[in-house]
Amino acid sequence: MDLQFRLATTEDIFRLIELYHVVYRGTYPEPLMNQFGVMKKFLEEPGSYWFIAENSNSIKSSPIVASVAVRYDAENRLAKAFGAAVLDQHRRAGLMEKLLSHCIEYMQKNTAGADVVYATTRTVHEGAQAVTDKLGFKKLGIFPNSHKSIDYETHCLTAAFYRNAIENRFQNYSLHEKLRGLVKIVTEEVSQMGELKFIIPDLPSKILIEPPHLELVTSEHFVKYRYEKLKKEKELQFAFFPFHEPNTLILSPDQSIEIFCYHSPGDAYSVIVGGKVDNSINYSSLFNTIANLLRDHQARYVEILVRADKPKIIDSFLKAKFIPSAFFPAFQLHEGKRYDYVVMNKTFEIFDFQNISLKGLNQKYLEEYFNHWKQSSLNPKMLQQLSTHPLEAYHHRSQE
User: Fold this and answer.
1) Exposed e or buried b for every residue in 372-400, given b needs 16+ CB within 10 A?
2) Domain 3-161 in this protein, CATH class
3) pLDDT at 398
4) Taking the C-alpha atoms of 74, 169, 141 and 136 in order, what is their torsion angle to the nearest 10 degrees?
5) In sequence order, what are the residues at sequence separation of 6 or more whose Cβ sits closer than 8 angstroms to the Cβ of residue 32?
6) Sign of the CA dihedral 33, 38, 43, 49?
7) Which helix (H) or strand (E) holds 142?
8) What is the rounded CA–CA span in Å between residue 371 and residue 391?
9) Do 175 and 196 touch, CB atoms closer than 8 A?
10) Is the pLDDT of residue 387 over 70?
11) CB 325 within 8 A of CB 141
12) pLDDT grade, residue 76 (50/70/90)?
């Protein structure tokens, strides 16, 4: 079969819907892959690209055999590849590797350039992880049970770095001591990072106050308007979570606290996108409350990005029982330097890893994640009683 790679157009939408329905058996949770209006908006937006593979000798109505979407952020010279799908009969032919390679080449030639290209890979089989391995992507972490399609799915974070992105990092900082294990695994993959320093952050120098009553607002258009307004007026203390638009707002009655989130009702996945907070507020109490509000809003997984050179803020999230699950070097571009980030999350689901098959360092990331989980979720007596690692039984089963 002669295949051609090209950008999808709005005329391809119904064939794309068919592809994702067939590959995921109608369970793909992201509206972008199954709702005509959402797909049409994506295809017409600047910075959005949808690549497809199809039979070059067939008529237009023939099935699309593979697809992957890409979002591009020119400000940060950053691209995200996601939503990869391949018909079963084409999986062993290296088709997704070729299509993704075509995507990266296209982005480098037809945009201002991408210093960093990242993707999350499924763990239901090693094939998805092998695709990014072959293209030189580095493993950076793991997101346990972060999404739900047919079953709960654990995803891995991978990234490829170009144009000396790693060497151009801001490096004059110290990491939180509790990130040592996670960062050690990352440096096995990204050797150019060099030697990093770790510290135990000082205690707060002032008495912090508990957050006031908070409410959750789901007026999508108002939330987006408010977020863009505050961002333009530079009133947000943090506002870096690329490729997510907020649709949920958590705020105090006087609006001294406004935290913007994206919530996906399809698989109950939530991310904290940005916000403004009074510096006198206890961050640990605040974000613990926010996570619980999102849980009551049917979220089962909550994620946030924290700049790695902010150890005191990271400490607050650790105390709120957010677990560091990935370390992303050179993620953000700001004033000519690239900044490292930590991905932290909190899950309200019972962990389920019966359907995963981990490749290489991804096993180490999962074990490191559970080390943090034990420390944050078990009392000292239970920790002492656990003489074996909670993943040891899983590891033995996976070798059988």
Assistant:
1) bbeeeeeeeeeeeeeeeeebeebeeeeee
2) alpha beta
3) 39
4) 70
5) 38, 39, 42, 69, 83
6) negative
7) strand 138-148
8) 10
9) yes
10) no
11) yes
12) very high
Per-residue pLDDT of 150-202, as tens digits, reads 556 678 899 999 999 999 999 999 999 999 999 999 999 998 998 899 999 99
CATH fold label, 174-387: Aminopeptidase (3.40.630)
pLDDT of residue 1 exceeding 90, the answer is no
Q: Hunting for tokens 């996670």 — which residue is that? A: 182
Structure-token pair, residue 376: 């944050």
pTM of the model: 0.90
Q: Facing residues of 83 across strands?
A: none
Identify whether the C-beta of residue 172 lies closer than 8 Å to the C-beta of residue 358.
no
Place of tokens 């953000």: 332
pLDDT score of 172: 94
pLDDT in tens, 332-351: 999 999 999 999 999 887 77
pLDDT confidence bin for 395, thresholds 50/70/90: very low
Residue 106 tokens, joined: 């296209």
- Same topology for domains 3-161 and 174-387, yes or no? yes
Reported as a pLDDT band with limits 50, 70 and 90, residue 126 is low
**Tokens, residue 18:** 């068919």
